[in-house]
Write a structure and sequence with these properties.
Layout: E1 2-7, H1 12-16, H2 28-40, E2 48-51, H3 55-68, E3 72-74, H4 95-106, H5 121-139, E4 143-148, H6 150-162, H7 168-177, E5 185-191, E6 195-203
Parallel strand pairs: 1-4, 2-3, 2-4
Antiparallel strand pairs: 1-5, 5-6
Length: about 210
């Protein structure tokens, strides 16, 4: 199986330094980035595009679909990590937001703690396992694109690589020291002999 993980294009929320909502759209530059990554896949023989249902991912997916002819299926499991509703749509550097997120970050590995309705490590892990299992069950011999978001792409890739050895500590190091750019392309391949292997990370040569 060949699996391409594609982060959505730049958004108005990225420009505004916001914790984004599900309806945050692509910026003009984000649309240009998405058109370029779409052109990259024109001859790739893509079997299916799975897309997060967040607007920015769906807009990116539609442009890829237009160039490849591949069908899009919206998949909630590919959404970005869910932040507390109290911070969504607000600036990252807002003092009240910073206070909330400091608590959330400190308790990311605490299975029994929630500020409100956010996801922690274990919530992300459950989603990632479901995604990887579904892909191998339904698409083992195909080439698939998943259009998703920075943090969830990092989690999905690290879960594929580290499997049951992935811990909150390992993921924390991975997500803070590995960059995921807008429309960055990550390629994972699965074989019966080796399982998941990372071919390349965050390729942005198309832009």
């Amino acid at each position: 199986m060949k699996l391409f993980l594609v982060r959505h294009g730049e958004t108005t929320g990225n420009i505004g330094n916001l914790y984004q909502t599900s309806s945050t759209p692509l910026s003009t530059e984000g649309e240009n980035q998405a058109k370029k990554v779409a052109d990259r896949f024109k001859e790739a023989n893509i079997d299916l595009i799975y897309s997060s249902a967040h607007m920015r991912a769906e807009e990116t997916s539609k442009l890829i679909s237009k160039e490849t002819g591949a069908k899009i299926e919206l998949w909630e499991k590919l959404m970005e990590i869910r932040r507390p509703s109290e911070v969504r749509g607000k600036r990252v550097d807002d003092p009240d937001v910073e206070k909330i997120m400091k608590e959330v970050t400190a308790n990311f590995a605490n299975r029994d703690w929630k500020y409100s309705d956010e996801e922690n490590f274990f919530d992300l892990e459950s989603r990632a396992v479901l995604v990887l299992d579904h892909l191998l069950t339904k698409h083992r011999d195909q080439t698939i694109i998943c259009v998703s978001h920075g943090t969830f792409i990092k989690f999905l890739a690290s879960k594929a690589i580290f499997r049951d050895k992935l811990t909150p500590e390992i993921f924390d190091l991975f997500r803070h020291h590995v960059w995921s750019a807008n429309t960055g392309v990550t390629k994972l391949e699965y074989t019966e002999r080796y399982g998941w292997r990372l071919s390349y990370w965050n390729d942005i040569t198309h832009i």
